[in-house]
Amino acid sequence: MKDFFMNSIYFGIFLTLISYALGIVISKKTKFFLFSPLIVSIVLCIAFLVAAKIPYESYAAGANFIACLLTPATVCLAIPLYEQVEKLKENWLAVLCGILCGVVVNLVLIFLFCLLFKMEHTEYVSLLGKSLTTAIALGITEELNGIIPVIVVMVVLTGNLGNLFAVQVCKIFRITEPVAKGVAIGTASHALGTSKAIEIGEVEGAMSGLSIGIAGILTVILAPVFAGLIP
C-alpha cells in the first residue's frame, strides 16, 4: 500500500482534498476558530505522511497540481473587487494610505526584530516578503539572495495566523468598518487571510483582494531599500 501511494501522482491530490473536506466538517461541528479547515487539513496531511512514512516528495508530486491553481485563484479575487468598485472609488485614498502604512510597519518591525535577535543579512532578507502572496514573496527573496525555504514557511505561517485570528483581532481593536477590515487583513496576511475576509463579508473580501496586489507592488519597491539596512 505504501508503494502504491508513493508511486501514484493522484495520491497528493486525493490526500489534500480529503483532508480539507474533513477540516470543513470538523470546523462546522466544533465551531471553534482554531479548528480552521486550513489548519486541520495541514495537520491531517502531516500526520498521515509521518504515520505512513511517506516522503514529502511523493506527496508533492500530486499536490503540486493543486498548487498550480493558486495563481488563477488569486486573479479571481478581482471579481469581488469589480462588484465593489463604487466602494473603492469612495475610499481610494484611505485604502491606499492604509496599505502603505501596513507595508511600512511590517518592514520596520521585521528590521527591528532582526536587530534584536542579531540576525544576519541573509536571514533578514528572507523575512521581508512574509506578508505577501507566495509568487511575489519568492521573487523578492530570490532577488535579494534570501533563503527560499525560510520565506515559504513564513508565508504559510503568516497567512494561517491571519486566517485564524483576523476576526478576533478586529474585535479586540474594535475595527468595525468593512473597508478597514479588508485592507488590514489583505495587507497583513495575503490570500489565506483574504479567504477569511471573504467569509466575513463582500466588502471585506474585495478590499482584502485589492490589498494583496498593492501591498506586493509597494513591498517590491521598498524591500531593496530595507534590505540595505542590515549589511
UniProtKB/TrEMBL annotation:
Membrane-protein topology: Multi-pass membrane protein
Transmembrane segments: 7-26, 32-52, 59-80, 92-117, 147-167, 210-230
Pfam families attached to this UniProt entry: LrgB
Metal-binding found in the keyword field: no
GO cellular component: membrane
Highest rank taxon of the organism: Bacteria
Keyword terms: Membrane, Transmembrane, Transmembrane helix
Principal localisation: membrane
UniProt xrefs under InterPro entries: CidB/LrgB
Subcellular location, record wording: Membrane
UniProt key word Transmembrane: yes
Protein name: LrgB family protein
Leader peptide range in chain numbering: none
